[in-house]
Amino acid sequence: SNVRSAVTDELDFYGLSTPMELVETYGSPLYVYNENVLRRRCRELKGLSSHPGFRVNYSAKANANLSLLRIIRSEGLVVDAMSPGEIAMHLAAGFTPDEITYVCNNVSAEELRNAVDHGLLVSVDSLPQLDLLGQVNPGGKVMIRINPGIGAGHHKKVVTGGKETKFGIGPDDGDAVRRILKRHNLTLAGLNQHIGSLFMEPDSYMEAVEFLLREAEQWDSLEVIDFGGGFGIPYRKYEKQPRLDMEATGRMLDDCIGRWAERTGYNGRFMIEPGRYVTAECGVVLGTVHAVKNNGERRFAGTDLGFNVLQRPVMYDAFHDVEIYREDGVPQQETMQQTIVGNICESGDIMAAARELPEIQEGDIIAMLDAGAYGFAMSSSYNQRLRPAEVLVDKDGRDRLIRRRETLDDLLACFPEHAEKTGGSV
Ligand code: LLP
């Protein structure tokens, strides 16, 4: 039997099909999502607080597949958007405008107008953007993003709080904010923050929660207080990395907001804004091994999983667990150091470096685990490769296509000169 599929085996991740069958049916590389895992994560997050105003605001930049958004909505989560594209996706998934918050950064008047016209509450994160929103929507409601001066995250590229990041309005800018609000007759209806992505201990998050609640006491018009996301997941499951303690986090959060609301008489909403925690673990990406070779001491398994498909390992040196599947199972045997690489023409195209794994063979199917967040969402058409298909394994274990693989027609469709000659076809 397979020594390197314990994690997905335990979840019955692929339902009624094997990973080999999924690749045969839908092609390779392939993103596969499991509905049960997704629903479980939604429920865990909703259970963090029993306060009646508590909402989980899914940060859709992690994964905006329409079918997944529909499931997330059916679990009672609301959603954030940060581009016109995300607004369009959310509306198509059935979210109503009061369920969408626009949390943007450095956008045009036109974009602000688009969000306002859709009836969304908009959060701005600088004084000039606040002024611009005032011009676009005088007399309206607005939310501002505060930079609490506290940061957290798995890599410096994803720490969003603190003085060295581009985000948020500083806590000392209160007077300037008031002047701009007054100038445009705006009402400050919400505060939000986001300190960064991926914490495994709740301490700095809770520190930031307390900070934002102190800030909130200076305003009596608030309807929403949004503490941001960043809830981490264990990427090293084969090393038994502990999970973030959601029960302890929930106790602290629930207690903190409950006491604060009681003391201040606040009866608006409290939100958290997780992306990764909602979708990371419900997704894997499957690829196929095409060539195995030794370059000197190094053993390379060459696959179709390049950083066009999964960018995280290259962008952040991120670690994803690897599983190996073969028709007749991967035998219990000695492991060896192997480096899993993709098919992109850069030597940095490394998915997993020097891993101790059972011997990988040509024809094997490889899974990169925990790829449901910032996986497909960050994929690209670099080297003019087509973006992969996405498949859902539903509650009953049945699989279905939820995004078709891109085609060569999709690739060429944006070139007007090509379209003129061919009527748009390859
Ligand atoms: N709210 C705001 C305003 C954000 O900018 C983000 C993520 C979130 C919420 C959700 O954060 P999460 O719960 O997913 O940590 N591509 C990187 C992560 C970038 C996060 C960007 N902002 C990665 O793959 O690790």
Automatic annotation (TrEMBL):
GO MF, one annotated term: diaminopimelate decarboxylase activity
Family annotation (InterPro entries): Ala_racemase/Decarboxylase_C (IPR009006), DAP_deCOOHase_LysA (IPR002986), De-COase2_N (IPR022644), Orn/DAP/Arg_de-COase (IPR000183), PLP-binding_barrel (IPR029066)
UniProt keyword annotations, A-Z: Amino-acid biosynthesis, Decarboxylase, Lyase, Lysine biosynthesis, Pyridoxal phosphate
Family according to the record: Belongs to the Orn/Lys/Arg decarboxylase class-II family. LysA subfamily.
Entries under PANTHER family matching the protein: DIAMINOPIMELATE DECARBOXYLASE, GROUP IV DECARBOXYLASE
Function comment: Specifically catalyzes the decarboxylation of meso-diaminopimelate (meso-DAP) to L-lysine.
Protein name, as recorded: Diaminopimelate decarboxylase
Species of provenance: Oleidesulfovibrio alaskensis (strain ATCC BAA-1058 / DSM 17464 / G20) (Desulfovibrio alaskensis)
Source lineage: Bacteria, Pseudomonadati, Thermodesulfobacteriota, Desulfovibrionia, Desulfovibrionales
